């Protein structure tokens, strides 16, 4: 079997470890799971016990002609409701930390933009700084637009560590869904709408994911990668990338001019 | 009908719930294929429904096995991405619209009139129309195999399903399937509603109606409530595709979210449409085989209605990852939690029905008991998915695929097989083989769990659904290989039951009228029942009329043989 032992460790819980929201989702999931396991065992246990113990036997007791038991029935109805109320309460306790972006750490990118705009529903809880990246899903690639100068990249998003990164997720053709499992839940990019999520990566590393909404024949290949680097390296990346894009645009302009000249000559 | 005084006296005696089966001998039932094509007999229509839907079940199963073969190893090359999307779309659509929903119409057609003591459905010709609309829907859909199958999944999310992205005719074939099977279900639902409201035997008040009939009544009302939404949605999609409208196109002022709301306003009730009749069958089978009354009859009937009502209020839990405000997500989380309560009540009631019974370990009981055992897993994963922050991780992954199959295969399909093994003797007059039936059960049970249990782990490890391949580095190979092996076991298990049916229909042991000592009126007549079902419909005095009738016979100390004597009709 090609399954590494490491893969088995995560076989019962969602992916986590890259960002606090993913970790909180993992915790919330575990609480619900731990509530569910005893219920599962009780139901299956009673069912199997009944099937073994009460099967027809020669000389066995006659079947009990019971038609119901109101206190018992009320009891399990209320019991089930109470358990669900508990799960709802736990969800509300964890919701804030999952949904609202945390604030950037002290080692985060210093030049992060303070969140002030009204269309950002959930600023970092203590008004800290964050970096906003626009994510655009297209058949079959992800495009990222970084703040500041006109910088973009495809497939791989580069972000600074210890910095809260908020994502504005859109799609320009069909619906796509942004998802890097270790960095938290998914958010659909729906044409005509803007969706939001965030992450904050403490240590440098590479996190992989892929589009999670069927978007056509290339859906399985619409992969994405987030590379977390130190804030210094991020700044260097921004400069380098800006230079690359500038050069590419100049090259393109050059080509266009040459083409135009050629065409004039032909005429 | 001329009636002699003796005959009238006899009928009067019979109506005091004397165990009298049969009568008829009026005219021979027509034979030959033309008789089937033109029939309006609810039993023949029921058989045609069951036959057609099982054919589609096999087709959908073959598509599933191709999907599993493609995913058995990383970077699979068995099919192209286009074909894979076609397979996924065909599999889901077939299983839902051409198997599970209409198979219940098949069972209900055959058994609702028998269980309520009626001689046919309220509108027999409308009933035939339902079947033929279904058949043509299936043909229109499978016709797309010859040009281009649909590729947007069974949910056909816009704008992927719009002509800009899938210009081929597959999506159009899908739209016609939705319209035709939708009409079929609507017409059928109205027929069931009319039949159940108006044609119950004397004495069968709401509190004495069999729980399967309760579930079919609820199924019918849910269909009437939910189908118009999808009929509207696919019509809008059709005009978007061909007549230049922009209902779902953001560039033209439309909204892709509208599709999702309309689709799931139908789509979630659809889940209960598919599972409630299975719950109904289980509620019939468990008491018969435990030789005990159903525990909490009223609670189960009430829970059925409550599930149906709440089922109309949970649709957006399929949309937790869309751009939607948190308060909406909270509402749909809470409503989804709420629906777990009546569902839990049913499971507890079934177990309490088995408790202190004297359980006959026959094949129908195996399948019936497997339903709560498997459904509880789907129920628990459903509650986990209803916690919307957790759903942000699990949505659109194999965890959801596992969940839906625990609900729809572990729930509905095991229920369908329970119904098949329970009612086959009534429909054919012969018993299915117990040995082969139990072997089929165990192979299916093991295969099913091997296929779908590991899919929870694949999803938790980050595997999205509807991907045609995955790299070895993703670490999902082991789960997928296990799942593929399981799926073939499951396929073998299903085929064992198919063989069982084919062999037993000619060579099975003769069943007699009431092989299981059932509780409900279908066991009062012959196997298979004559064209008019009953000469004399007994007065119903409890929720278990056959128990009363058997007791009556015992009291009268008549030899059992006289019970089933055909009575010469007075005509």
Characterization of this structure:
The complex is a heterodimer of chains A (267) and B (571). Chain A has helices at residues 5-9, 20-53, 70-99, 231-266, and strands at residues 113-114, 129-138, 141-146, 151-154, 156-160, 164-171, 176-178, 187-189, 195-200, 205-210, 223-229. Chain A is an alpha+beta fold. Chain A folds into 2 domains: 15-56 and 67-99, Helix Hairpins, CATH 1.10.287.90; 113-253, Immunoglobulin-like. In chain A, strands 1, 2, 3, 4, 6 and 9 form a 6-stranded mixed beta sheet that branches. With 571 residues, chain B is an all-alpha fold. Chain B starts with a helix and ends in an 8-residue tail after the last helix. Chain B has a single domain, classed as Cytochrome c oxidase-like, subunit I domain (Cytochrome C Oxidase, Chain A), CATH 1.20.210. At the A-B interface, helix 2 and helix 3 of A face helix 4, helix 8, helix 9, helix 10 and helix 11 of B.
How is this fold's topology laid out?
The complex is a heterodimer of chains A (267) and B (571).
Chain A: H1 5-9, H2 20-53, H3 70-99, E1 113-114, E2 129-138, E3 141-146, E4 151-154, E5 156-160, E6 164-171, E7 176-178, E8 187-189, E9 195-200, E10 205-210, E11 223-229, H4 231-266
Parallel strand pairs in A: 2-6, 5-11
Antiparallel strand pairs in A: 1-2, 2-3, 3-4, 6-9, 7-8, 10-11
Chain B: H1 5-15, H2 33-37, H3 42-71, H4 81-115, H5 124-142, H6 170-198, H7 211-242, H8 256-290, H9 297-311, H10 326-354, H11 363-386, H12 388-394, H13 398-428, H14 434-460, H15 477-507, H16 545-556, H17 560-563
Helix pairs in contact in B: 3-4, 3-5, 3-15, 4-5, 4-6, 4-8, 4-13, 5-6, 6-7, 7-8, 7-9, 8-9, 8-10, 8-11, 8-13, 9-10, 10-11, 11-13, 11-14, 13-14, 14-15
């Amino acid at each position: 079997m090609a399954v590494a032992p490491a893969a088995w460790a995560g076989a019962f819980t969602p992916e986590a470890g890259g960002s606090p929201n993913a970790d909180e989702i993992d915790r919330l999931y575990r609480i619900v799971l731990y509530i569910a396991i005893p219920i599962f065992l009780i139901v299956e246990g009673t069912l199997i016990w009944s099937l073994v113990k009460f099967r027809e036997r020669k000389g066995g007791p006659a079947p009990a002609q019971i038609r119901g038991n109101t206190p018992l029935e009320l009891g399990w109805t209320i019991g089930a409701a109470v358990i669900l109320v508990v799960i709802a309460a736990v969800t509300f306790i964890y919701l804030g930390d999952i949904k609202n972006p945390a604030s950037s750490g002290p080692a985060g990118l210093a030049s992060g933009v303070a969140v002030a705009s009204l269309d950002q529903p959930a600023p970092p809880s203590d008004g800290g700084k964050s970096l906003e990246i626009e994510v655009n899903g297209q058949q079959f690639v992800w495009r990222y637009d970084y703040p500041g100068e006109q910088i973009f990249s495809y497939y791989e998003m580069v972000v600074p560590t210890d910095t809260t990164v908020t994502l504005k997720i859109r799609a320009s053709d069909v619906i796509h869904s942004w998802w890097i499992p270790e960095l938290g839940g998914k958010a659909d990019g729906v044409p005509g709408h803007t969706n939001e999520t965030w992450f904050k990566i403490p240590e440098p590393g590479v996190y992989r994911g892929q589009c999670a909404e069927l978007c056509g024949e290339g859906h399985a290949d619409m992969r994405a990668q987030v590379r977390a680097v130190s804030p210094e390296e991020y700044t260097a990346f921004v400069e380098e990338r800006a230079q690359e894009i500038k050069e590419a645009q100049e090259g393109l302009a050059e080509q266009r001019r040459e083409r135009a000249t050629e065409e004039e000559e032909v005429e | 009908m001329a009636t002699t005084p003796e005959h009238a006296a006899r009928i009067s005696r019979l109506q005091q719930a004397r165990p009298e089966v049969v009568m008829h001998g009026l005219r021979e039932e027509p034979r030959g294929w033309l008789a089937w094509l033109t029939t309006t007999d609810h039993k023949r229509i029921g058989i045609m429904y069951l036959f057609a839907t099982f054919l589609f079940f096999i087709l959908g199963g073959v598509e599933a096995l191709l999907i599993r073969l493609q995913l058995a190893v990383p970077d699979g090359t068995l099919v192209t991405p286009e074909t894979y999307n076609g397979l996924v779309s065909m599999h889901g659509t077939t299983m839902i619209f051409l198997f599970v929903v209409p198979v219940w119409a098949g069972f209900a057609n055959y058994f609702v009139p028998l269980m309520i003591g009626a001689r046919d459905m309220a509108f027999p010709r409308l009933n035939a129309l339902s079947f033929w609309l279904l058949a043509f829907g299936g043909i229109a859909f499978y016709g797309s195999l010859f040009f281009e199958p649909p590729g947007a999944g069974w949910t056909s999310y816009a704008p992927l399903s719009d002509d800009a992205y899938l210009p081929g005719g597959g999506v159009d074939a899908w739209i016609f399937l939705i319209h035709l099977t939708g009409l079929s279900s609507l017409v059928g639902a109205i027929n069931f509603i009319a039949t159940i409201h108006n044609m119950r035997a004397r004495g069968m008040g709401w509190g004495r109606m069999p729980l399967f009939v309760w579930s079919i009544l609820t199924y019918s009302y849910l269909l009437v409530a939910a189908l118009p939404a999808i009929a509207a949605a696919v019509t809008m999609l059709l005009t978007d595709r061909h007549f230049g409208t922009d209902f779902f196109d953001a560039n033209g002022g439309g909204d892709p979210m509208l599709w999702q709301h309309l689709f799931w306003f139908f789509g979630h009730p659809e889940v209960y449409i598919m599972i409630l009749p299975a719950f109904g069958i289980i509620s019939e089978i468990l008491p018969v085989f435990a030789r005990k009354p159903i525990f909490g009859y009223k609670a189960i009937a009430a829970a059925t209605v409550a599930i149906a009502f709440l089922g109309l209020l949970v649709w957006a839990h399929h949309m937790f990852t869309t751009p939607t405000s948190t308060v909406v997500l909270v509402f749909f989380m809470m409503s989804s939690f709420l629906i777990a309560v009546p569902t839990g009540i049913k499971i507890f009631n079934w177990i309490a029905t088995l408790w202190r019974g004297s359980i006959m370990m026959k094949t129908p009981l195996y399948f019936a008991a497997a339903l709560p055992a498997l459904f509880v897993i789907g129920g628990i994963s459903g509650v986990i998915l209803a916690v919307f922050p957790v759903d942000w991780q699990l949505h659109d992954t194999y965890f959801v695929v596992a969940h839906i199959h625990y609900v729809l295969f572990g729930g509905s399909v095991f229920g369908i097989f329970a119904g098949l093994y329970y009612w086959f003797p009534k429909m054919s007059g012969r018993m299915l083989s117990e040995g082969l039936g139990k072997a089929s059960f165990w192979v299916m049970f093991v295969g099913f769990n091997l296929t779908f249990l590991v899919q929870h782990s694949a999803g938790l490890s980050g595997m999205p659904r509807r991907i045609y391949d995955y790299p070895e580095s993703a670490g999902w190979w082991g789960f997928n290989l296990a799942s593929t092996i399981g799926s073939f076991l499951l396929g073998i298990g299903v085929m064992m039951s198919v063989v069982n049916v084919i062999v037993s229909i000619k060579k099975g042991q003769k069943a007699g009228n009431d092989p299981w000592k059932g509780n409900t009126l279908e066991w009062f007549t012959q196997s298979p029942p004559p064209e008019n079902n009953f000469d004399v419909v007994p007065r119903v005095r409890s929720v278990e009329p056959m128990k009363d009738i058997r007791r009556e016979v015992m009291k009268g100390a008549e030899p059992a043989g006289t019970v089933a004597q055909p009575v010469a009709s007075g005509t």
